[in-house]
Amino acid sequence: AIEKSDVVVIIVDIRNPLLHIPMALYQYIVQEMSRPLVLVLNKIDLVSDEFKNAWEAYLSKRFPDVKLLFYSSKAKSTEGKGGVGTRKKLISAPL
Length: 95
What we know:
By secondary structure, this protein is of the alpha/beta class. About 35% of the residues lie in helices and about 20% in strands. It has helices at about 25-30, 50-60, 85-90; strands spanning about 10-15, 35-40, 65-70. The radius of gyration is 14 Å and the shape is globular. The relative contact order is 0.17.
């Protein structure tokens, strides 16, 4: 499926994202297949801002070619401005 994809999106739980994206997978997608990779960190409503920021800093260094997005299915968005409309804007933003 990766070989036929234009963009690869991996959704991971922010509480332990490294379980879902091993370095070998990252290298295969980004370096060997030359595909853009979007990592969606889900369930951010379950962690503090400090925890989210720490993962963002770490993952940005470990996977420099990945676009990171943060998501929660709760009523409030990742920016604290509310609802589904804001989440749609975040998800539809250009890579």
